[in-house]
Task: inverse folding
């Protein structure tokens, strides 16, 4: 393996979010820090007799404030969220991708059910009214890589344009892909992140059937309870988060503001079960082990872990076990939190959104709280920051994500400058 002193260093210089708890970084971070949940009664469609009636929705986004209004109207939600978040990230970084050598810049999007809204509408229209009802933009909106293409078009990125899909690990994996692209000297700048708009009947139904969603409908903001004894599932969310990632010398040469450094990425697959995690947490463990090895940091240097923390019965115990196995006696010295009770679980966009959270936590020296953690599960015995966010000068942090099919992903972020 190449020594870390020889490897090209990668930093985050811009971030953009379109999230249920905030459409800009300041509002987003304030609600994360203060534990202001976006969970409420679901309004996107009539859930009928479904056992879950709550979600974290985005209902106040005017796409015309970000892109040409005509373009905003034709995009489905997941693509609109992606384009808006990517534009915000580029603005935050004060970078014009059109002025970069075309072969030295790219975009990578992580998603899983992106384009499903367009497919569902096209199917319904065709069966009810025939092929002419489908619409000329249906094919453009319905293919898996549409979001990345829309970002590339909007930001004039003519180099690399990739979509990766690894369920709820997609956002993390997209950032990991960008990291390796820059480290391997393929590019100098990448726009990387994730997007998802999963609040759709054909996604809602299976999640209810599989008892993945919380049924605490009477108190939406207290419904999602990671690592708590009374947890009964997640609250579904939607949105997007994108980052501008640059090779360090490229960023410094243009005087960029730097949030933090991305040191390493590790991924794994358990090949155990279509939806359940391996009971010993081997996927989480292997992704952390690979990421830390790639980052070339010692386990004693890790101060904070932004956990996947889905508030499902199996995940929280398995994730805890994996962290204990990875860090040994140091595990209980590491602050851990799940910020999903504030944002909802954004599925494929979760990893990207939580990378933003982790970067802001490092920059602001504040570890965000785990909302609704009141009655600890004896099997979940780590330092899950609760009650209020904790001031702390984080040196190095991990962001963990996991997806259906046993996919696991871990990112290592470090304070900059070192």
Result:
């Amino acid at each position: 393996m190449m020594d870390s002193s020889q490897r090209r260093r990668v930093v985050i210089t811009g971030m953009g979010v379109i999230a249920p708890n905030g459409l800009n970084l300041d509002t987003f971070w304030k609600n994360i820090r203060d534990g202001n949940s976006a969970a409420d009664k679901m309004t996107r469609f009539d859930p009928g007799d479904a056992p879950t009636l709550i979600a974290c929705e985005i209902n106040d986004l005017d796409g015309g404030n970000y892109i040409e209004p005509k373009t905003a109207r034709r995009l489905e939600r997941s693509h609109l969220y992606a384009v808006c978040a990517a534009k915000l990230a580029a603005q935050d970084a004060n970078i014009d991708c059109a002025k970069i050598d075309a072969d030295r810049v790219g975009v990578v999007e992580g998603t899983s059910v992106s384009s499903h809204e367009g497919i569902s509408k096209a199917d319904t229209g065709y069966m009810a009214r025939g092929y002419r009802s489908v619409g000329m933009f249906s094919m453009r909106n319905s293919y898996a890589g549409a979001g990345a293409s829309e970002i590339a078009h909007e930001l004039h990125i003519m180099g690399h344009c990739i979509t990766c899909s690894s369920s709820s690990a997609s956002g993390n994996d997209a950032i990991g892909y960008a990291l390796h692209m820059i480290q391997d000297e393929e590019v100098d700048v990448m726009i990387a992140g994730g997007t998802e708009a999963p609040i759709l009947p054909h996604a809602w139904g299976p999640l209810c059937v599989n008892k993945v969603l919380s049924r605490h409908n009477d108190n939406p903001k207290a419904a999602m309870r990671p690592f708590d004894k009374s947890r009964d599932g997640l609250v579904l969310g939607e949105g997007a988060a994108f980052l501008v990632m640059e090779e360090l010398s490229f960023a410094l040469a243009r005087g960029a503001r730097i949030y933090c450094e991305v040191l390493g990425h590790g991924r794994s697959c358990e090949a155990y079960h279509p939806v359940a995690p391996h009971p010993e947490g081997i996927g989480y463990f292997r992704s952390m082990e690979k990421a830390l090895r790639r980052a070339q940091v010692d386990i004693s240097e890790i101060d904070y872990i932004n956990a996947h923390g889905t508030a499902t019965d199996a995940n929280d115990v398995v994730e805890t076990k994996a962290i204990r196995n990875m860090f040994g006696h140091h595990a209980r010295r590491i602050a851990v939190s799940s910020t999903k009770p504030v944002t909802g679980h954004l599925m494929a966009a979760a990893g990207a959104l939580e990378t933003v959270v982790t970067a802001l936590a490092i920059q602001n020296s504040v570890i965000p709280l785990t909302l609704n953690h009141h009655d600890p599960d004896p099997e979940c015995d780590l330092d899950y920051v609760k009650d209020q966010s904790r001031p702390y000068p984080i040196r190095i942090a991990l962001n963990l994500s996991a997806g259906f099919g046993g996919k696991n992903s871990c990112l290592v972020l470090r304070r900059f400058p070192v």
